[in-house]
Amino acid sequence: AVRKTVAHAGIDPQKLLGVGIGLAGISYPQTGVVHYSPFFNWRDVPLALLVRSHLNLPVYIENDVNTLTLSEQLFGAGRHIANFVVVTIGRGIGMGMVVNHQLYQGANGGMGEFGHITFDPARPVCSCGKRGCLEAFAADPAVVAYVRQSHSAGDAPRTLEDVIALAHAGDTFARTALRRSGEIIGIGLSTLVNLLCPSRLIISGEGVAAGEYRIEPMMEALRANTFNGLLDDVQVIIEPTDDHAWARGAASLVIGKVFE
Questions:
Q1: Read out DSSP for 92-148?
Q2: Are 32 and 48 in contact (CB under 8 A)?
Q3: Would you give the DSSP letter of residue 241?
Q4: 113 neighbors 26 (Cβ within 8 angstroms)
Q5: From 24's CA, which of 71, 92, 94, 147 has a CA 20 to 30 Å away?
Q6: pTM for the full model?
Q7: Three-state DSSP class for 232?
């Protein structure tokens, strides 16, 4: 994929400084090992070493939301902001954080699994194998699954875009699913604000495309559940992403290393 991309862009391979890879799950940036990736079902995969052996270039890996956070710091709404948090909504729910202008990575890179805080331990099984995670209630697959229960096989939505189209058409179940998701995410965000009180909270990811059906109830729940006054000084920015934003985030890993 890297070789094809470079050839398609018409770039001299000698000018490449390195390769950045962002993916969901827990990665150890120091060793280049993917400790756990739920979507690929990978455990302790030495991804950086494997890719480097084919390309003979420096290869850096990181959690995908952390890479997006780096991109926001370099090019987006996080520029010149000392303390901010990025939360992404999509297939999963993730988080990245900058503290005093530095990406916070936690011990061994295991930081930001916001989607896996326990919302209700007695409820659905999450992709991580545990029960009741925020992600299992409110991520895009949970929204789609909720709406599918109320539709016949031929009319059942397969993607979030299908659910959004149904919501636009007045479908009650679609609107309820998106509202429910937004409310749950808002409660989770209020916990982040109560704990961290960043100066800026950036909400991003493909799931933001649901717009008012999801974002308005999210903001209502955030305001209702944040400790008195803490939200007053927090600027909340809604910023949809596309594939280019994620790719730019992964490339930011290399930029960060060059200027480290």
A1: SEEEEEEETTEE---GGG----GGGSBS-TTSPBPTTS-BSBHHHHHSHHHHHHHHH
A2: yes
A3: -
A4: yes
A5: 147
A6: 0.89
A7: helix
Model confidence over 191-210: pLDDT tens digits?
A: 999 999 999 999 999 999 99
Question: According to the model, what pLDDT value does residue 109 have?
Answer: 66
Query: Which H helix or E strand runs over 87?
Result: strand 84-89
Q: What is the DSSP string of 137-186?
A: HHSHHHHHHHHHTTS-TTT---SHHHHHHHHHTT-HHHHHHHHHHHHHHH
Q: What is the pLDDT of residues 140-178, one digit of tens each?
A: 999 999 999 888 877 889 999 999 999 999 999 999 999
Angstrom distance (rounded) from CA 15 to CA 18: 9
Query: Among all chains, which residue has been given the structure tokens 């370099």?
Result: 74
Q: Which residues face 22 on adjacent strands? A: 62
Asked whether the beta carbons of 115 and 93 are under 8 A apart, the reply is yes
Instruction: Convert 147-182 to b/e letters by CB count within 10 Å (16 or more is b).
Output: bbeeeeeeeebeebebbbebbeeebebbbbbbbbbb
Task: Report d(CA 79, CA 162) in Å as an integer.
Answer: 34
Q: Determine the Cα–Cα distance for residues 34 and 24; give it in Å rounded to an integer.
A: 9
Mean pLDDT (whole number) for 105-134: 82
